């Protein structure tokens, strides 16, 4: 079912229809935006089509079943028991994230991000007039770990938030419980709130621990952001949720969500999130098997035929390719990828300064379409 090549052009989709705008070339093969070239599961197609055929699209209602679906998903997938009163719905993880920055800090306060990281996570620190502090991840042969000594050294009394990307986009780490505990203990000691973006939590190839599930003290400083968007390829339906057991944090966050009017999810988003979480377990297992076989295949080819350094991700369908062994300028690598390889990858620099010489490759496509991109890379980076 994942092997089919589906033409996505002219469907108002950013990955295919924004190529001209972002890369100056409409005919590139796209392996950039983090969505998948796969159809949503059949049960979800049916639910959405059934609702669409009703032909009346008035305002949506947030049924209590949505909350039950989120709670069951967290319990069954991640062994995390949460309460309805901990959940706030929102129309996207990034809108929720931006609201969190406003809710848990004041103008001029400092917010820490661990780079390289999904770029909106630092963009919205600046747009909310907060000061960005970076705590670069440590890299060893393509494997990334946290630099907690550096983290401790940059914290000041004005540091109010630490942003965790867990699992991490783009480096593909599933943080271990020990790593998370050590990070959280520093934040507890320094009175720092953690915003934990866990949108990739279901696309994992080893045990994932939700940060707030570790213990009550950690939960007390954590707001978790998540959605079914990545897991079921419904990111365009703009449905997400925030979880925190700390009612003080929740009240502050809800106030900002309301002020920004980002709490009303469209009818398709509501139906899709509930239906996906109620029925999606088996489909997700099949998806993860396909993703890991694509990842293994891509890494094997790149290791065999190129000097690109790439480490097997523990989560996500994203490969973080390091071209530094070619001794080429970053802009030159970018030019070869676009003009000679004819492919669109995400530019590593947008993920932070330590993303230089890196490009992000999305493998969530049919194996045959993935091979087109891989062969073009291999032919141009010997
Ligand atoms: C870490 C991370 N957070 C958030 C998002 C986007 O979330 P949303 O589409 O719900 O705003 C992405 C999408 O790539 C992501 O990788």
Task: State the helicity in percent bands.
Answer: 40-55%
**For the terminal residues, how far apart are their CA atoms?**
33 Å
Can you write the helix and strand succession as a string? HHEHHEHEHEEEHEHEHEEHHHEHEEEH
User: What is the CA-atom radius of gyration, in angstroms?
Assistant: 20 Å
Which regions are unreliable across 5 or more consecutive residues at pLDDT < 50? none
Strand order, largest beta sheet: 2-10-9-8-7-3-4
CATH H-level name of the largest domain... which superfamily? Type I PLP-dependent aspartate aminotransferase-like (Major domain)
Number of domains: 2
Main sheet overview: 7 strands, mixed
Class derived from helix and strand content: alpha/beta
The CATH architecture classification of the largest domain is 3-Layer(aba) Sandwich
- Proportion of residues in extended strands: 5-15%
Chain-averaged pLDDT:
97
Query: What CATH first level of the largest domain would be assigned?
Result: Alpha Beta
The helix count comes to 14
Shape: globular
Supply database-style keywords:
2 domains; 14 helices; alpha/beta; 14 strands; 382 residues; three-stranded antiparallel sheet; seven-stranded mixed sheet; Aspartate Aminotransferase, domain 1; Aspartate Aminotransferase, domain 2; binds pyridoxal-5'-phosphate
